[in-house]
Structures are given as structure tokens and as C-alpha cells.
Amino acid sequence: MRRFVMVVLIIAAAAAALWLGINAISAFSSGWHVLSARYPAGPNDALSCKAGQTVDVHKTGEGVYYFKRCVCLSVDEKGIGLKVPLPLRFFKPPILIPWRDVTGCTVHRWGRNRFGYEFTVRDAPVIITVPDSFGNMERLCAERNIPMSRP
Q1: pTM score > 0.70 for this model?
Q2: Gap between the Cα atoms of 32 and 47, Å rounded
Q3: What are the Cα distances from residue 142, in Å, to 104, 112, 121?
Q4: Where along the chain do its domains lie?
């Protein structure tokens, strides 16, 4: 019985270490940690967001890293807010990127009938691609004189 308990505890510890390791790798390889260090969402930044969104966060010139259907996305007058649910939040604290630091936007197809917006951020080697779930991306970019391009 004692041996069985030890085996179960070892398996549980290994699973927890694997889970934390995968979350750490995803945060560092995608560039989320770079954005969260520069643009942390403060305690007063209540991100009113749409949960279950797919967002691409990746370092410039590197491969794409999708956070599929697990990001709470906020696009409003304050900026672009991103947060993930608590079980996935290890090394990925909430982010709020103010519009003044968004330097460019490229519009492209996102799936069959939707558009995605690829944002570049000032002084951060990270690109964020978000779906137009809110229907107001082009208006928000135009109001803030963010250069937009279409491939």
C-alpha cells in the first residue's frame, strides 16, 4: 500500500511539473513574457472581455504560437487586453497594451469568413494577431491614426 501511494505521488508530481513546464515554455517562446513585463494590466484595469478567443502571440521573425480558444480578449478605448484563465496563467499575467504603443496593423483573412488583425507593438519584438470579434477594429485603428495595410 505504501509503495502504491508513493507511485501515485510521484506520478502526480511529474504531471504537475510537466504542466508548469509546458506553460513556461509557451510563455517564453511566444513572447507573452516580454509583453507582460512592458504592459502589465493593473488591478484597476477590469478587462471586459470575450472569453474563448483564439489569439496568435509570437516574436518577430519566429514561428507562430496560437493560444487556441483560451484567451480572454478585450479591445476597447484603453487598448488591447489579453488574459488567460487561471490554470494556464503560470508565467502569463494579464496584459493591457495601450493604443499609443500600437505602431501598425495588417488586416488578413482569419478562417473562412472572418478577418484577423496583426498588430505590431512599439519597442517589443512581438506581433499579436486577433480576430475581429468586436467588429470595431478598423474604426479604433483609424481613430488613433494607426497605419493599416492589407496584404
Answers
A1: yes
A2: 17
A3: 11, 25, 16
A4: 2-149
